[in-house]
Amino acid sequence: MQPLPRPPRPPRPQRSEPVRHFGGKTIPEFLFQRILISAGLLTFAHAASADCRGETICVDAISQGGNVELHAKNLREYPITYTLRIRSRDWVVDGPKTVTRTLAPNESEQVMVLSNDDPSSENDYRYSLDWTVGDKDAVHDDDHIYSLPYASGKSYRVVQGYGSRFSHTGLERFAVDLDMPTGAPVHAARSGVVARVEESHVKGCWEDDCGRFANYIVILHSDGTTGEYYHLRRNGALVDVGDNVTQGQQIGLSGNTGHTTMPHLHFAVYRAVDWGRTQSIPVRFQGADGMIDRPRRGARYRAL
Known about the structure:
mainly beta; Immunoglobulin-like; Glucose Permease (Domain IIA); 2 domains; nine-stranded antiparallel beta sheet; 28 strands; 46% strand; elongated
């Protein structure tokens, strides 16, 4: 098989665009909310409005004596890391205008308080919000040895290893792309709980917005990191959100969906950072022929 062709570098997306792309994966989870607060609304001591997205996180705006309290609530049974930025010319924030925090399962917290010295006028503010699965302060268990993410006895060529210049740089430095054909069984490299599943897409392409067509499985590990498996085929997830999976268990079928030029599996272990992004983490794999500390481009590794 020929190596991946190098396309021209795509233009960098602006923060206001509802798509984020990094390396082999793009997740369109960007939220932009504009709330208009009138003088009448502010007169109610406990008026509140809630904005909930994806059945994962809600932001509540609660009016309290002329101030507005913003609260964030995690609706899920696993930790999420969110970033919220407030923008307004008239409202004063009681701390930083941008915060990145981790919410424990089902946790709710006050994010910030907004105040205004002129409640008689009509004022507005807006906020940007993005989130991802996992704990930004997670400490990876470096003693854990991962399985290769495919069936025992099988071997596949590494299309991109750690630090490959095609797209495994920056946040994606420690991701691995494996030359797996559509329909090849995908196995869990580590035990955990299924946190996210997308399997409805059929399209694979290389244009800027193609990442939104990716099918994937995200598994939360016990140390707060995530194992993420991308480019699965349509209906290629064999697990559901909330399932407990064991290392080596078959969880899906490889494919060619999303931001891709050929059928392959993109796998990496990540720690949450800010704005819904994740930082890949170097891990070690146990193969049938020994330990793999750094998967090399062009190498083939047989699964134990």
